[in-house]
Every structure is written in structure tokens, then in C-alpha cells.
Task: structure prediction
Amino acid sequence: MKRDDARTQRVLLLRHSETEWSRTGRYTGRTDKPLTEAGRQAAAHLRDQIGVGQAPPDTVFVSPLLRARETCDALELSMPGLLRDDLVEWDYGDYEGLTPSEIHDIDPSWDLWVSGAPGGESPDDVTRRIDRFMAELQSLRGTGQALVVAHGHVLRGLACRWIGQPIRLGRNLRLGAGSVSELGWNRGVPVIERWNDSP
Result:
């Protein structure tokens, strides 16, 4: 991505807070799980951590899945989030709801970032979604910031695409529930300013 000084200077990435499945390590793609009570409480504290009360974002993008919307609602922003289907989590297909150890029993060599999910999305499918969203993000005008509230794998892929890399490098980026990351610029070069900052 090339720098245009009229475009948004900072992009905050917020992974949704805890759900029952994220707490137990189950792959949660399209299953629409709500936040746990602990997740709701943690989400309410994120407002101060990311500073949206003092410097509200110019634009807020949110996955339409419930866990992302509940996390965004907890921030009590003065503007509604713009729902974007391209921000939904990776479709895990046959592996939806399984733990990594359960998947390993089925296919010991499985790597989501390389082969995708049987009956779900491939890395190319997810890359196309992320790139569509990136085009919209690039078109924003303003000197402030955008906030993106979404999911672990799709946000890891988005960070990779921001710095011009294939999403498979997302396997090297850990991203906890309720964590905050920041994308920005350094001398005109897109960079990851901070990553996986948890309360």
C-alpha cells in the first residue's frame, strides 16, 4: 500500500472479546456466539485502553457477527459501526467448533494458512475478502483514525496485507481475544505499530 497524506493515518484493530468457544480454544468462524460475561466486562474496559473517548475514530468498521458487534457496542462510540461482510471470520467448514487437538487427530499436517479449511474457505478466498476491504480502507479521507472490530484470523490476515505480505504470514502473529493492534506509517511505508496489546 502506498501512502497518500490525505488518507487515514492510523488504523486500530480490535479483536472481539471472549466468547465461550474462544475461551475453550474452539475454532469459531461463522457460528454466531455471544460474548461471555467476562468478555462483556473486558470489552467495556477497552474504551479507555484504546483512547476512543479522547480521540474518537473517524470511521468504524465492524464484522456483522454478534461477538464483534457486542464488543463494538461496549465502546459506547458516538457513531454507529459500518457492518462489513468482508470482515467476518475465516469459514472453517468441517473444522468449525473443533479444537486444534481434535483437528490434529483428523489431519496431523493441517495448516489453515496453507490449505484453508475443508468445506470452508481457502487462503485465496480470504485474501480476496481482505483486499476488497483494504481498497475501501485506502479510499478513506481524513487525518485521524479508523477502527476495525473483527476476528483473530481475519485481522491477522489484514495486518499482513497492510504491509504488502501474503496472509500466510499471519501464522506468525498471535492475537488474543480483546486485544488491540495498530497499523500506521513510518516515512511513507506501511507498518505494524503495535500488536496484540491486551488489557
About this structure: Strands lie at 10-15, 59-62, 82-83, 145-150, 180-186, 189-197. The mean pLDDT is 92. The chain is about 35% helix and 15% strand.
